Amino acid sequence: MSHHRDTAVERWDLAPDLSISRVITGLWQIADMEREGKKLDLAATARAMEPYVEAGFTTFDMADHYGSAEEIAGLFLNKHGADAGQLFTKWVPQLEPQPSRRADLRTKVRKAVERALERMQTERLDLLQFHAWNYADPSYLDALFYLQELKDEGLIRCLGMTNTDTAHLRLIVDSGIEIASNQVCFSLLDQRPLTNGTTALCEQYGITLLAFGTIAGGFLTARWLDRPEPDGDELETWSEMKYRRFIREAGGWEALQSVLRVVHRVAQRHHVSMANVACRYILDQPAVGGIIIGARLGIRAHIDDNLALFRFQLGEAGRAEIAAALDALRPIPGDCGDEYRRPPFMTATGDLSHHIETLPAPYPVTTGTSGRQRVSSGTVWEDLAGFSRAVRQGNRILIAGTTATHGARAIGGSNPVSQTHFVIDKIEGALQSLGSHLKDVVRTRVYVRHESHAEAVARVHGERFADVRPANTLVQAGIIGAEYLVEMEAEAIMGGGKR
Questions:
Q1: Quick one: 379 and 282 in the same domain?
Q2: Do 297 and 150 share a domain, yes or no?
Q3: pLDDT, mean of residues 421-438
Q4: Strand pairing category for 18-21 and 11-15
Q5: What is the CB neighbour count within 10 angstroms for residue 237?
Q6: Residue 234 banded pLDDT, cuts 50, 70, 90
Q7: On the CB side of 69, how many CA atoms lie within 13 Å of its CA?
Q8: Do 290 and 376 sit in the same domain of this protein?
Q9: Cβ atoms of 456 and 417 closer than 8 Å
Q10: In this structure, are residues 190 and 270 in contact, taking their beta carbons and an 8 Å threshold?
Q11: Once rounded to an integer, what is the mean pLDDT over residues 212-227?
Q12: Distance from chain centroid for Cα 179
């Protein structure tokens, strides 16, 4: 294989020493190709990566659970050398019950990174992206702090997130973790990164957005223009099954057809494919460094069509025409990544059954002789002052004054918004551990150190409790601990909120 790289392919500096192609070849379909116990010819599949690199598409995206993708990429790298391409992977931790998941978490993180290094036959991962299943469980932050240690050690070049919402992306960075990228769903059908502030945050913090689902499993291509809605038997891949759910959330099949007709008109004017137009529109959005287009290695490739992406520009008129068509769509609910955390679960199966079984309790629970249940979040203050994070008696739950403390760390830095989100996460974690939910909260009391932070803290409370509307008091107070800007306590009555 020659190492010629087509200069027509746009590139993006993810880091000072890491330049990537703006069209990233996604290898998630390896898992689809290996369904029902199939095993690919790894060497032959690795050879199928060569035409992409020769065309200038030198960057590949995979994950620990994408079948043999990491091993295939490793064979490619071993044959052609570390400079042949940039390999991105993800670590999606398996959820374990208390207390096993907290034991030796640092060791588990190292083993996960070492497994990826071994599979990919490299000494340093170009980009390791992390997925958190439950923000109410702070062990995801522990894992990120340990990943930061491995980055500092030199085993990881760049650390990224995947499917992370705006609030928690900010919280993570404000807590001192160096995040280079966030990989999220972003397409003509799914404009959440724009509407929910993710692109603005990424521009502010210097974080690159990597967009997947950009052609919605192929539905944003000429194949489906003026076609009737397919039934389940016509859908060939997991991606098609997944993105049909997005179509239904966005307004249904006719809403999709309205967008496709506009995309078709724009594509004809530029003499390019509809897929090119759908992809170019997302590439032109703020903070987007690359889009991830899936490949069925050795079976189907779209290299020539992808190259056309860099030979035209939509221009203001084209972008405005497409934006007007998108205004008629129904917004995809929630924030980035919510499809993996709360209903509606817009996955291939419509639930999380092929990802996880249940969410473990975030915190340990002890039961006294009177039947009273107590939750400890493990902060230094709980042992020092002899109190519980939360106490449940019957159907009533009382949650102590909670600051942005995790173990001996203060989370959220000096940002009152990030601190407040983490405080509410802790409250939610205590409720989950006792079988409850934020929707059961009937009373909150919020204390802010500085009056100037009151509105920002109140807005976070409004965001997180918008559908709950508990009774609330907010006062300025001298909070103990100079690093803490906000403290909150809460009361809940189980069954008090519609689930």
A1: no
A2: yes
A3: 98
A4: antiparallel
A5: 18
A6: confident
A7: 25
A8: no
A9: yes
A10: no
A11: 96
A12: 12
